[in-house]
Amino acid sequence: MMAGAVHPILSVCPSRALFTEKFRVLVENLPPGLSVTLHSLHCSEVKDYWEAYGHYVADNKGTIDVSQEASLGGTYTGKEPMGLLWSMIPVPGSKEHAVLFNVDVETPQEVLISVFQGHLSEGFRQKPPLASVVAERWSMAPGLKRIRVQEKEIEGILFIPPGPGPFPGVLDVSGYEVELTECYPAMLASQGFVAFVAKYVIPGRELKMDYFLRAFEFLQEHPLVISNRVGLIGISQGAIVVLNMACRTEAISPRCCVSINGSHLLMEESAVTFWKKHFKMKEHTILRNEQNHVTMRGLTLPLPNEATINMENINCPLLLVVGEDDLNFPSAECAELMAKRMHTAGKEHLLTILSYPNAGHILRLPNSNLARISRYRFPCFDQHEIILWGGHPKPHAFAEEDSWDKILAFLKQHLYPDPQSVPDAALCGAPQGSCR
Fold first, then answer.
1. Cα Rg, the chain, nearest whole Å
2. 23-34, pLDDT tens digit by residue?
3. Rounded to whole angstroms, how far apart are CA atoms 311 and 243?
4. How crowded is residue 100: how many other Cβ atoms within 10 Å of its Cβ?
5. How far apart are CA 109 and CA 86, in angstroms?
6. What is the pLDDT of residues 71-130, one digit of tens each?
7. Of all helices (H) and strands (E), which one includes residue 407?
């Protein structure tokens, strides 16, 4: 039991940090050998509550250092410094198939971290914690500019790093529907790139490949961008777009290209028309399990006689990131087919593949929780469906951290004129608590 005069000290360092930064959770002044639960709680922008927790035992000094000690149970086990973030799940009683997405990049994600006596798995709101502290996770580094763009028929959000520039540029095609996903480009800009995320779908408009080529030219012509050092990055449907763009060498000359869980199908029409066409051709490939959950891998797996992009036209370094448990796209099979085409064209030296066992389709920033299943409406469906995206929490978390580090290294290698000039991104200038 806890002695009445003893008060545990809980610290999180840094208490304010970028999404991609690690923090250290430390509990001190505990009775040696005391069993405790460390618990995290976050209220999302849509007022859903998410939590994670790990079971620990204080050492002979009465201390628990989450970066060094193993969790004995909970939503994660083992030595996982960031398990209180990446293993988050909806609290009991939440609506089914919720997904934790941050849309507002100018507001921090606040996470309440608490320590409770005993090894608990439920009832956290009904029990008083021994100590609590709030940690802030930010998408934007200090001084970053966020600018809404609506010109030359292009719509999107432009992120500009602080400083005089000019900077390398990255065009991000997120591949989701009407809502833009800004966290990824905001973090790219925090690393010293001018990042532009172009809208993928605009209601009432048919956005064909020319739209994205104009978005590339818009970024290339920006006065703070080094015009011959602009790269491409896309995930999911957006990866199809950037792969098609990388082959349009008569129109643009990207310095490099990153495709995250994509396909090399030829895309000559708008996204909406593209999906409706493939749905009509391959409706039989859509699988439903006993719970009516949808697996769509067959839609984007090229048939033997189906049109695909001309891989031999790619003249820039290409990085393919693959989640081997992707249940939405045949990412691994497409990567293998693209590698064969690059080899045949004598361009295998331009290709790098990162492949992650048990990682799913939606690979986001490090420390994000797994979105294995959610409600989503593809253009080919009349209504929202329950879509299986794949992945398992621990290997998926590893894939997000490892791929982010390697994507950054790839972009810096090929876009920065001098790798030594790349800024280090960190959230500074605010009290950070006790970092020892």
1. 23
2. 999 999 999 999
3. 9
4. 20
5. 13
6. 999 999 999 999 999 999 999 988 877 788 777 889 999 999 999 999 999 999 999 999
7. helix 393-415
